[in-house]
Amino acid sequence: TLSGIVQKMGLQVNWRFIQRINNIKQATSIRPGQSVKLVTGPFNAIVNKDTYRIDLYLGDGNEQVFVRSYRVGLGEFNSTPVGLFRVRENSKLINPTWHNPRTREFFSADNPDNPIGERWIGLQGIEEQTKDLSGLGIHGTIEPNSIGTQSSMGCIRMLGGDVAQVYEMLSEGVSTVEIK
């Protein structure tokens, strides 16, 4: 299985990313002896608040290679915090539920009105000024016109197809996201 290959090889990407880059239509259709391109990772991200962009890089430090840039929406009233974060362990969700912290309204996983869309990537601060922040993440949106604006409650929002790709590349406990 693709998930087995990712685990056995110690790859720092989601198995869906291997499926995507190999253009495998059905994850269950791989066969013994088949050639499969692998990417070891890790991927890291930099969010630029001035340009409403998230840039993905493969590798660490001086070995980083730019991969792709995506447009994002940010927190209203400049509420998206700056600093260095790591993708929180056990935080990546597909089709998540959500409680609006302001109105207490609950959105079920399959609710088409769920404002955070189909993907959630939780972030945890790893610097003194970010370590106590909670509830911050990268997620989809059902409001595509909000991309490029300050409309969220502080999170980084992305178009559905874009956040699906980022979800596949960023690894829990490994990938960093710098917001500046």
Written description of the protein model:
By secondary structure, the protein is an alpha+beta fold. It has helices at 2-9, 15-21, 160-169; strands at residues 43-48, 53-58, 65-71, 74-75, 83-87, 93-94, 98-99, 106-107, 119-125, 137-139, 150-152, 156-157, 176-179. The strands form 3 sheets. Strands 1, 2, 3, 5, 6, 9, 10, 12 and 13 form a 9-stranded mixed sheet that branches. Strands 4-11 form a two-stranded parallel ribbon. Strand 1 (43-48) and strand 2 form a beta hairpin. The longest helix has 10 residues, at 160-169.
Number of strands: 13
Mean pLDDT: 94
Strand proportion, as a percent range, falls in 25-35%
**Apparent shape:** globular
Q: What share of residues is helical?
A: 10-25%
Distance between the termini: 38 Å
Succession of helices and strands:
HHEEEEEEEEEEEEHE
Low-pLDDT runs of 5+ residues are none
The helix count comes to: 3
Structural class: alpha+beta
How would you characterize the largest beta sheet? Answer: 9 strands, mixed
What's the quaternary structure here? single chain
The radius of gyration is 17 Å
